[in-house]
Design goal:
The protein is of the alpha/beta class. Helices cover 51% and strands 12% of the residues. α5 crosses α7 and α6 packs across α7.
Length: 197
């Protein structure tokens, strides 16, 4: 009779949302306690759990393995998707250790309770921040102070080139936008912001 051998491998998953953040700091901290772990790291938004390195790790892990993350937020920001991932790992007998929670395995009953509570609180805080932003924007609009999202220097340069094509070569707005690699909506916004209509 053959027995299935458990993998027992350990993996560190580290993630930052932008290249401005240092993902190696997470790795260094986790390596202090999990020096035998294989590192998976990426710089991708946490809005979704559909991320290249994360997906690769999900496919790699097997029964008996352990995934270690610094905090719940490194798994993702979408509560439902994070909980679905945890449930999937539980079904596959893969432990998920969250370092900031005292090294608790969030696939355990106690760990899942803690995770669900924290995730719900985090989502409430995000909703609260977004609501305050909306209120602030509405007030600024009423007072005529709202500028909207600032265009990047690269976009401004492209818009100026598009206007140049329109005036010197008699390009239509659509043709000028295409020629300079910007959307027609971006060009319209720039024309409106500069009072060029």
């Amino acid at each position: 009779m053959r027995f299935k051998v458990l993998s027992m491998a350990k993996y560190i998953y580290a993630r930052t949302s932008t290249t401005d953040q240092n993902v190696d700091q997470q790795v260094a901290k986790l390596k202090e306690r999990h020096s035998d772990a294989t590192v998976y790291k990426e710089q991708e938004s946490g809005k979704s759990t559909d991320r290249p390195v994360f997906n690769e790790l999900k496919e790699k892990v097997a029964s008996g393995d352990t995934i270690v993350v610094l905090s719940v937020s490194r798994l993702g920001r979408n509560t439902v998707q994070v909980l679905e991932f945890i449930e999937l790992m539980k079904e596959r007998a893969v432990a998920v250790i969250v370092d900031d929670l005292g090294g608790i395995d969030v696939t355990s009953s106690m760990g899942k309770l803690v995770l669900t509570t924290l995730a719900a609180v985090a989502e409430m805080q995000r909703e609260d921040i977004l609501e305050k932003q909306r209120i602030g924007i509405d007030r600024a609009k009423k007072e005529g102070k709202y500028q909207g999202k600032k265009q990047s220097p690269k976009t401004i340069k492209a818009c100026k080139e598009a206007i140049n094509l329109m005036t010197k070569l008699d390009y239509s707005k659509m043709k000028a936008a295409r020629a300079t690699g910007i959307s027609i909506a971006t060009l319209y916004r720039y024309i409106k912001s500069e009072n060029l209509t």
